[in-house]
Design brief:
This protein is an alpha/beta fold and 334 residues long. 48% of the residues lie in helices and 20% in strands. Bound molecules: (2S)-2-hydroxy-2-methyl-3-oxobutanoic acid. Residues 31-32, 72, 90, 92-93, 145, 171, 191, 208, 213, 234 line the site of (2S)-2-hydroxy-2-methyl-3-oxobutanoic acid.
């Protein structure tokens, strides 16, 4: 090879390195599988950002909490520190870092979607964004995991007594207290380990939203009974690090926020659609559905009052009142 040809080859390699460095690839972590509405929302966000940046910014989506070695609670902390660019996760996963996030999921706080939307779209949502910012997380938009419904393999759950002694997988600390109050034996476990734990009978049951998780993650293959008891609502959200946010100019901020809003509106819509006909889907897959009566729901509510009070005190009375006042102003029935 002549010197000249070597120089040309070297220059070519250098140009390649520079352009690869310029096309910014940001990383987004979420903690469910790649068929869920979480993934679909994250993918839509990535597409919109790629378009909005004229191809200069691409986002790679990592499902199943891969970036934190399967630890779903650690994602928010890593984003807060700026080591991951974006997270799509649900409220309960953030409670070890930001205990106030448990307010959303207090047992029987919400009766319907109008009430949910009034809080995420109003002053409570803004207040939570301020609290998240204190932990280095810049909230971009709210999406939906949904109302969490209980499944198990032993028998239909009709009353609080039916939970006695059941081994229940739960995602986070507040749900441990709720399950204990119901007489179940709760066990905190990563979501990615739950399917095989249910399959092998390590646990008897679990609780998760129908459209966002139970159907796309095929929980019906390893669970027989479901009771749509709507005991706890769990929102998801997209956040970036405050560090990223500070580094972006106004135009980039507007583009990223707009993409997040649009992606989460889409995510919420497909989640509600999948939930609306979800029980039919689950019956077709062989699950047995017990639809609780108003009296059953009142019994579940009464049985979860103690953990409600404990966690309301933990998150703070002012915050709970802000949510309750907003909820009272929204329509009471579906
Ligand atoms: O772990 C769960 O149960 C899940 C997937 O719903 C959450 O991330 C809270």
């Amino acid at each position: 090879m002549t010197h000249l040809r070597m120089a040309a080859a070297f220059a070519g390699a250098l140009a390649f390195t520079i352009s690869a460095a310029q096309a910014d690839t940001l990383r987004l972590s979420h903690n469910t599988g790649d068929q869920t509405t979480w993934q679909k929302g994250a993918d839509r966000f990535a597409e919109l950002v790629e378009e909005g940046s004229g191809g200069e910014t691409s986002i790679r989506v990592f499902p199943n909490a891969q970036l934190t070695g399967g630890d779903q609670m650690k994602q928010a902390e890593m984003v807060g520190r700026g080591s991951i660019d974006f997270v799509v996760t649900s409220a309960i996963n953030v409670t070890p870092l930001v205990p106030e996030m448990a307010v959303f999921s207090l047992p029987y706080l919400y009766a319907n979607y109008d009430q949910v939307d009034a809080t995420t779209g109003g002053a409570p949502g803004e207040k939570m964004a301020e609290i998240l910012a204190e932990h280095g997380l810049h909230l971009l938009a709210w999406g939906e995991n949904g109302f969490r419904e209980v499944t198990n393999n032993k028998h239909p759950i009709k009353t609080p007594d039916d939970l006695k002694g059941l081994k229940m997988r739960v995602a986070g600390p507040m749900y441990i207290d709720v399950m204990n109050a119901l007489g179940a034996n709760p066990q905190q476990m990563q979501w990615t380990e739950t399917f095989s734990a249910l399959q092998q009978g390590v646990v008897d049951g679990q609780e998760n939203p129908i459209g966002a998780v139970i159907i796309p993650q095929r929980v019906y293959e390893v669970q027989k009974y479901i009771t749509p008891w709507h005991y706890s609502y769990d929102p998801i959200f997209i956040a970036t690090s405050e560090k990223n946010w500070e580094s972006w100019d106004d135009e980039t901020r507007a583009m990223i926020s707009g993409a997040a809003e649009e992606a989460m509106a889409y995510q919420r819509e497909i989640t509600r659609e999948a939930t609306a006909d979800g029980l039919e889907t689950l019956k077709a897959e062989g699950m047995e559905v017990y639809t609780p009566t108003d009296a059953d729901l009142a019994a579940f509510r009464a049985a979860t009052k103690a953990p409600f009070d404990t966690w309301a005190a933990k998150v703070g009375d002012d915050l709970v009142s802000l949510f309750q006042d907003t909820i009272a102003g929204a329509s009471a029935t579906q």
